[in-house]
């Protein structure tokens, strides 16, 4: 498989702009070369190019192009199932001593929206997407900036556009349908999803970490929900402010970021206290 070629360079050679998602959909040259472009990314050449076109067609585009009769949704459904099976099979073989609960968490992290959206961005798969979603370009740009701040899987600290994850699932589904081979599809998934999350790199959810450290140290934890008014969530421990985050787009992301800040502030305070105790 050719994983050395930079997808961004290939797109530039075609004259495709870095963030022009809707404009890209209109460039026939990119569609004429779609099979070759995807082959360069995943190392597989489609026998039925119409499957590939379907895999990159959002339902919002169907009204625009009367020649397209199907969106990626059915292929996404298939890809979701194949990805889940692949991860279960892979982890069952790789980690014979891992309990079912941990296997479930590991599988979920490797196929969640954030992980798959990161894959889509890594290979610029969104630049092939045909859609008529006016807000998607801005959401993708925001996500691209967020993953610079959070370079590894963050367990809820970034807002991953679901559409990015969808097209990874639909591409996997298209490969499976086209090849009619689970072995072929699994080889592609294994390469596409690198680096995979392992037990040692699996992060605990920030809210879970916060509650656990407060429970362990017998401190009172309170939250202040100002999200509807200001987009902010705050955490207070023993009447002392410890964490705040603002994210107007989604309450859950604001909550996770505030919890993450609070956890690390408590951790630093406990370490400082331990250091002082050691010196007395």
UniProtKB/TrEMBL annotation:
UniProt keyword Ion transport, yes or no: no
Q: Which cofactor does it need?
A: Mg(2+); Mn(2+)
Q: Which InterPro entries match?
A: RNase_III_dom, RNase_III_sf
Keywords in alphabetical order, please: Endonuclease, Hydrolase, Magnesium, Metal-binding, Nuclease, RNA-binding
A molecular function (GO) held by this record is: metal ion binding
Give every RNase III domain span: 35-180
The superkingdom of the source organism is Eukaryota
The biological processes this protein is annotated with in GO are: siRNA processing
Q: List GO terms (cellular component aspect).
A: cytoplasm; nucleus
Do you know which PROSITE patterns this protein is assigned to?
RNASE_3_2
Q: Which PANTHER family match?
A: DICER-RELATED, RNASE II-LIKE 1
Specify the protein name.
Ribonuclease 3-like protein 3
This protein's encoding gene: LOC105166099
């Amino acid at each position: 498989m050719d994983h050395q070629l930079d997808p961004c360079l290939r797109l530039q050679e075609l004259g495709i702009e870095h963030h022009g998602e809707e404009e890209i959909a209109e460039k026939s040259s990119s569609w004429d070369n779609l099979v070759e472009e995807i082959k360069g990314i995943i190392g597989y050449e489609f026998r039925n190019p119409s499957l590939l076109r379907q895999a990159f067609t959002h339902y919002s585009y169907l009204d625009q192009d009367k020649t397209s009769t199907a969106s990626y949704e059915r292929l996404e459904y298939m890809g979701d199932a194949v990805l889940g099976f692949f991860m279960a099979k892979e982890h069952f073989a790789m980690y014979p001593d891992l309990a079912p609960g941990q296997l479930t968490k590991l599988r979920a992290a490797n196929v969640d929206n954030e992980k798959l959206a990161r894959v889509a961005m890594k290979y610029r798969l969104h630049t092939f997407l045909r859609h008529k979603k006016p807000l998607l370009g801005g959401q993708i740009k925001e996500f691209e900036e967020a993953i610079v701040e959070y370079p590894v899987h963050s367990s809820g600290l970034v807002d991953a556009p679901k559409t990015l994850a969808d097209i990874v699932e639909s591409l996997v589904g298209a490969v499976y349908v086209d090849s009619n081979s689970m072995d072929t599809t699994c080889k592609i998934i294994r390469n596409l999803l690198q680096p995979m999350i392992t037990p040692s790199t699996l992060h605990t959810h920030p809210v879970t970490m916060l509650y656990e450290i407060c429970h362990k140290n017998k401190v009172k934890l309170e939250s202040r929900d100002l999200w509807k008014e200001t987009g902010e969530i705050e955490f207070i421990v023993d009447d002392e402010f410890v964490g705040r985050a603002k994210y107007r787009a989604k309450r859950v992301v604001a909550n996770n970021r505030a919890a993450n800040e609070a956890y690390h502030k408590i951790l630093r305070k406990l370490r400082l206290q331990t250091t002082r105790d050691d010196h007395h």
